[in-house]
Amino acid sequence: MEAMLSPASDEYVAAVHPVNQTERIETLDVLRGVALLGILLMSIQAFGLTEASVQQLVRNPHGGNYWLVTLVHVLFENKMRALFSMLFGAGILLFLNKSRSSSGMEVPELFIRRQLWLIVFGLINAWGLLWHYDILFHYGIVGIFLFPFMRLSPRTLLVCAVAVGLIYSGKLYWQFAEQKQKYEKFQQVTALEKKNKKVKLTDEQKDDKSAWEGMVKGRQYDSKADKADVVAMRSDYATVWSHQLPKTKRMEASFFYQFGLWDIVSMMLLGMALFKWGFFSNRLTTRHYTFLAIGGILIGQAMAWFSLSNHELAIVNFTRYVSTNSLPVAEVLMPFERAFVAIGWASLVLLAYRSGRGAWLWKALSAVGQMAFTNYLMQSMLCTLFFYGYGLGYYGDMKLYQLYIVVAEIWLIQLVFSLMWLKTFRLGPLEWLWRSLTYGRRQPMLRTETSPQVTPVFS
């Protein structure tokens, strides 16, 4: 693929030169819009239902809601977020390839300021809007780490992405190995108790036994705990905040540093490589996009369907999952499954875009992509106000299929709002605020205002 578009080629220079608001790469915006709207397909489940109630659909595999949750899992879960991360990686290169800013500050300084403000917005989304699956905080941190990678060749970036993906896969396997070790220790203790019912367990043996029993209990359906979860989420803001606090701490701290970091780094590096090859800027041949669409979707979906039974077994019977498996197939394959499918979906979208049909749709998706930052936080605001108790309080009150009616409504709102807003303004409201904070001065907002040279990362 490197021969298709080398870093020294005229096409590559055109793809990464600093762009004005009127010189955007439209396909990048379209793909960003698709990824942003696609993310809601998965996040709506966490906005509107308890995790336990969603898992109950897997434990009782029949009916339309089971097939719906299965199809969403196989086709989209993690894939749209992976594509979003890839596009953010591409945006990093767009920003850093500016020769010099008009603010008097060097581009690296501006980039660091931009990322730090993104971290602030992420904290607001997680701790203020109460969305514990926020990704802005993570993107802000990871983007700073990836600063030194901008000068690497696309092939080297791809190697780095694969290496980090393997580390992520390895960490997921290591987690499973620790679970299996706990199960084996539990088995040894129970075997000892069966052999001698009067045996007095040591403190270490008691800990081994309770550790496994606590793990299994935490994965079983508890109707009382599920109902209490719903009651808390339908309460006032302070109650919801306190209830979400442990989840938010876990996602912003321990989960991110153990697993999420490797996930995001691998996808952003892959996005940087693909951007340097001209993938996102629609510069590959139709034959190449066709090959990537078919190959990416077939390989990725084959992995997804192959690992589905393993994924469901971990929910239905965790003890059997640990005791009968030597390899957590679903988790080990996941980093690569999502990359293949994300590239496949992106290639399919670019092929459809290249056909020239449905110009109105591409214009609308491009508008959503231009305002991705605003629309991402808008999804948090709309969903929390609709489902949480300090809003309309529909949390836990809707069937799974009904959630996707809400998704369709939010999509429509964001498509129309983005188109209407960009008729008057050059930036989304939060894109404008973020850029103004980054540059340390008010940026032009109206289309009639004179604009300094700007380059989008998230917007």
Automatic annotation (TrEMBL):
It holds the Pfam family DUF418. Residues 274-440 form the DUF418 domain. InterPro entries: Bact_Transport_Assoc, DUF418. Keywords: Membrane, Transmembrane, Transmembrane helix. The keyword Lyase does not apply. The chain crosses the membrane at residues 30-49, 80-96, 116-149, 156-174, 255-277, 289-308, 332-353, 373-395, 401-422. This is DUF418 domain-containing protein.
